[in-house]
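so the lab meeting is tmrw and i was supposed to have these ready like two days ago... anyway. pasting both below. for each one the top line is the aa sequence and the line under it is the structure tokens. i havent really looked at them closely yet so no promises
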Amino acid sequence: MASNKLRKVVGADDDELKVDMSPMIDMVFLLLIFFIVASTVIVVKQDAEVDPPVAENSKKAKDGKGRIVINVRSDGTFRAEVSSLEFPDAEAIEDYVKKKKDEEKAKGLTPIIHLRGDKGVSFKHVRTVIRASARAGVDNVIFSVYGFDKK
């Protein structure tokens, strides 16, 4: 048995029920801003002179944090992520890795060498980077490859 008050509300023809969407839209924008601010964007600058090899069984790296990028061009020259910085020899690579390792550890991250070697480069140049990094105290190395043949 409905009360008189409920019968009046249900029986009234002049009132339409409206849902106010403003608080929900405000909440969606607040959540959107929160996720944009809380997320971190990791950008690895690629050297246009380096054409990585293709590895069909490659896996995408889970985490991009703590990477120290070293490019090895097809002519055997070594460059940092910022391609304007060129390393003349293994000692310069070692010094650079030590400096970057300290920066990454200060952030609380585990440093990892991200080696981007050209597909035409000799392995001896890649080995030079791996050995210099190991002497600098970074023994985790990941290689940059394409998962499929680009055409």
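ok protien two:
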Amino acid sequence: MSSVSRILRVLIVDDEAPARSRLRDLLGDIAATCPTCIVGLAANGVEALRLLEEAPADVVLADIRMPVMDGVELARHLRRLEPPPAVVFTTAYDQYAVQAFELAAADYLLKPVRAERLAEALGKARRLIAPSDAALAALAPGARRHFSVSERGRILLVPVEEVVYLKAEQKYVTARTADREYLLDEALVQLEQEFGERFIRIHRNSLVARAALQGVERASEPDEEGAGEGHWQALLAGVPERLPVSRRQWPAVKQLLGL
């Protein structure tokens, strides 16, 4: 099948029902020249990811501003799918924002969306230009509200606010909640840059949620880096683990605790 006639699988994501209906109708209007198959309609990013577990898409038409999970955060999670779908943002943003979105998406569509522009955007999406995570991070109005975790063929969304600490171990980062651990395929340095207001570094291999840091205590045994007895360990809400505080990070921890 040629790239021209290939049927694109499309997922529509918008929190406004009329906007979803309009995109669905427009896809029908251009079906003769741009055949598509709608795999689902979602009202936010979380719903979109759940739908994609059951029905993969080639293209995601995503509104920028939505409750629960906005379009930019959704695009960042989509990049971790294999293969990642192309993203076309639908937006009412001003010209400055539109120029920025152009760097991270296959295309963008200003509302109200026109049939001709939709066909053009889908043509670009056929090339499946996946936005870079760095570009999306630059566009995001704030830090993500979820971490995405690939586990047994599923994508799990872990609310950032539930994470007590992040710990680097070899090539992965462990995100610890009160209930369990998750493996993130992300670098601790990047997480620190994105979530610096929520987490504080206490050691070269760990960040802890500022709100979860309850205090410190003297350790009775050397830590894994060979620091002697008497080094400080962080006490964290909701988990039994004690995490070592390095000498380098001790001043920041001490200041946060008001010691």
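from a quick look at the 2nd one: The chain is about 30% helix and 30% strand. The chain has a mean pLDDT of 85. will dig more after coffe
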